[in-house]
């Protein structure tokens, strides 16, 4: 077939699905997939409103008859996309956002395995009803569990990965459930870095690709690995590793891999990086060994300046989002600006003002007009660079003060009664940075340790390591239970003791030493180091941990984006061939049908969208696509070093600041009376 079939035949072939015809599966694949005209005729066919929260995971069953989905509403739903009817809606036992759910192979779609941000994995029997107990429970992961993988020919086992840096292999015949957190018996691989995505080769299922938070994609041969439960433990480190891919410019950086996908022939792997692009590489290519990455000195020159964003502020996502340069032309008081966005802007300005003061080393700058409840206060910021492994370098501190009155309390007269806000940024975290928030008075002698915002691996002694926020001594805020799906920079708020902080630093030293040893072992074992063959740009991936990429047929590469669009590239040339608006905020999941020219997508919207080539003629608005790509590049730079913090961070900051100002004001009044 050299030409695209006429539209009437195409639409008729697609409509045959609704009458149960199975004759067209191979025909439609050979006729339509792999053609530019096909993807340029994609149109929204159906919207499945089956959830009440963001949909973080979707997958087809083997026959392509049903879609399994998991959501922030903690429900698992099986839907027939052709009849638009729900086959089963299951209220899961998860207590947080469901990140991954799969049908167990060869079970007639009756068994479902799911994982969530609460770190728990449940095996559920669909036939038991919507409110039944799970068949098996696994509480082994110490932190969020990001992905579940099943092996097509194995109905008895599955793989999982999570924030604790482990890849676990559960065989239900050997390990029928486990309620012990941080259990060791089912660990297949200990990567010592958060593992956020996995993929199994469709040709040789013993090859397992894992995406880690140190910017690496590691491919293991599962035949060389085992667990304590199976009696074949092989240890950690580089055992079983045969490939290690890192983009050259990310060699000394920590970028999470949100999605991995093998090509249909198993010869190439596609990786999607946070605040970066899509990279295609050949696992058998070893040219990366000849390339030299950036030097350690370059890495340590200047730590990136961080910006703060409140969780729930989605103003920088969706088709209507704009970079700051465009928003500035409209003015800060433009209509439609949410309170969350104003609060995020205020936090970011505090960081920027302190950074200016630190870098200039001269007089403190005057504050710009601010939108928000706080007009000014003294700021104090310390920057901690990554330094050598196990060591930290504390940059000189600087302060910023303002004479503007504060709106959160009565400010004392003179600098002696002025409240001090301390924001400390550190890049020492195992997977991400941390923010320290402290309060004091210029008169105060109380040097109490401030609360620290940090990722799960900074608090190894704390059992609560899911991405849900916690505040010691305070009840959980309502928004924490309904957090945005998989926001990759979310934090805990804790008050660590000096002992715990010291323990975390010691753990970091040993972890870095082990990593150095593993890298040396990689050289000794001659582990393959591929280089990137293709790079796909234009989309934006910085807000969520569930952003997927995939192949469609042999010719196209797909990805979701923070701009609410589906991006489709030509696999060979990297050219944009189609752009589809598919969500009001973020497109996270993309799952092509196993046989037909049909695409299922989901994101922040609480629904699943079905796309098929129903347009009469091919169309692609290249001008609009170029505008979206330009905006995405600008906003990618703006959000590359942005940290998402819970609203409790702002609330506690304002409450403590108000308390400090009021206390200083009362002290001043007492002094005046005494005088």
UniProtKB/TrEMBL annotation:
Bias-annotated ranges (Polar residues): 423-443
WD repeats, residue ranges: 48-78, 580-612
Keywords: Repeat, WD repeat
Annotated region described as Disordered, given as residue ranges: 284-337, 356-492
GO biological process, one term: positive regulation of transcription by RNA polymerase II
Pfam families per UniProt: WD40
Entry annotated with the keyword Phosphoprotein: no
SMART domains given in the database record: WD40 (SM00320)
Transmembrane spans: none
Family matches, as SUPFAM superfamilies: WD40 repeat-like (SSF50978)
Compositional bias per record (Basic and acidic residues), positions renumbered to this chain: 284-314, 323-333
Keyword Manganese attached: no
Protein name (record): DDB1 and CUL4 associated factor 6
Gene: DCAF6
């Amino acid at each position: 077939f050299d030409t695209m079939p006429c539209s009437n035949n195409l639409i008729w072939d697609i409509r045959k699905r609704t009458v149960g015809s199975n004759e067209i599966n191979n025909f439609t694949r050979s006729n339509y997939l792999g053609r530019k005209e096909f993807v340029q005729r994609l149109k929204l066919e159906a919207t499945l409103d089956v959830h009440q929260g963001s949909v973080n995971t979707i997958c087809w069953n083997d026959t392509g008859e049903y879609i399994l989905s998991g959501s922030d509403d903690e429900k698992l739903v099986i839907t027939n996309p052709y009849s638009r009817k729900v086959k089963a809606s299951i209220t899961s036992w998860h207590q947080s956002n469901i990140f991954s759910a799969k049908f167990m192979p060869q079970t007639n779609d009756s068994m479902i395995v799911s994982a969530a941000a609460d770190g728990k994995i449940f095996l559920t029997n669909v036939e038991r009803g919507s409110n039944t107990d799970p068949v098996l429970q696994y509480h082994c992961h110490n932190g969020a569990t990001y992905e579940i993988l099943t092996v097509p020919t194995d109905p008895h086992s599955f793989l999982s990965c999570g924030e604790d840096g482990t890849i676990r292999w559960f065989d239900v015949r050997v390990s029928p459930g486990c309620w012990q957190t941080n259990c060791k018996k089912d660990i297949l691989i200990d990567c010592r870095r958060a593992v956020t995505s996995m993929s199994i080769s469709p040709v040789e299922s013993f090859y397992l690709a894992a995406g880690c938070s140190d910017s690496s994609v590691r491919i293991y041969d599962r035949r060389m690995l085992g667990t304590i439960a199976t009696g074949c433990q092989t240890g950690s480190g580089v055992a079983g590793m045969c490939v290690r891919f890192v983009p050259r410019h990310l060699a000394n950086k920590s970028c999470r891999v949100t999605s991995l996908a093998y090509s249909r022939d198993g010869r190439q792997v596609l990786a999607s990086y946070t605040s970066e692009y899509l990279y295609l590489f050949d696992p058998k290519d070893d040219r990366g060994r000849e390339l030299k990455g950036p030097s350690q000195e370059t890495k340590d020159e200047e730590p990136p300046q961080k910006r703060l964003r409140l969780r729930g502020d989605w103003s920088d996502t969706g088709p209507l989002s704009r970079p700051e340069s465009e928003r500035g032309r409209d003015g800060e008081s433009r209509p439609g600006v949410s309170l969350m966005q104003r609060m995020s802007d205020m936090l970011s300005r505090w960081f920027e003002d302190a950074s200016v003061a630190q870098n200039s080393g001269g007089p403190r700058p005057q504050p710009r007009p601010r939108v928000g409840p706080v007009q000014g206060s003294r700021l104090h910021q310390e920057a901690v660079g990554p330094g050598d492994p196990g060591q930290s370098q504390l940059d000189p501190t600087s302060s910023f003060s303002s004479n503007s009155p504060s709106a959160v309390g009565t400010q004392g007269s003179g600098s002696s009664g002025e409240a001090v806000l301390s924001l400390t940024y550190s890049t020492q975290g195992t997977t991400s940075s941390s923010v320290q928030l402290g309060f004091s008075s210029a008169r105060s002698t109380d040097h109490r340790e401030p609360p620290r915002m940090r990722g799960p691996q900074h608090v190894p002694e704390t059992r609560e390591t899911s991405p849900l926020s916690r505040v010691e001594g305070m009840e959980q805020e309502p928004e924490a239970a309904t957090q945005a799906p998989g926001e990759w920079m979310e934090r805990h708020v804790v008050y660590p003791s000096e002992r715990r902080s010291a323990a975390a630093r010691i753990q970091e030293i040993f972890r870095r030493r082990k990593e150095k040893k593993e890298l040396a072992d990689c050289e000794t074992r001659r582990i393959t180091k591929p280089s990137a063959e293709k790079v796909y740009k234009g989309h934006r991936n910085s807000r969520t941990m569930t952003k997927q990429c995939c192949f469609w047929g042999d010719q196209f590469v797909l990805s979701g984006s923070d701009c609410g669009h589906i991006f489709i590239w030509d696999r060979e040339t990297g050219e944009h061939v189609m752009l589809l608006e598919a969500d009001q905020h973020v497109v996270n999941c993309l799952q092509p049908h196993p046989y037909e020219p049909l695409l299922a997508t989901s994101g922040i919207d609480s629904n699943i969208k079905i796309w098929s080539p129903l347009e009469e003629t091919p169309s692609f608005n290249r001008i609009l696509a170029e505008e979206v790509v330009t905006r995405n590049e600008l906003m990618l730079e703006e959000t590359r070093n942005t940290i998402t913090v819970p609203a409790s961070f702002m609330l506690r900051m304002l409450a403590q600041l108000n308390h400090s100002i009021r206390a200083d004001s009362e002290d001043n009044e007492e002094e005046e009376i005494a005088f």
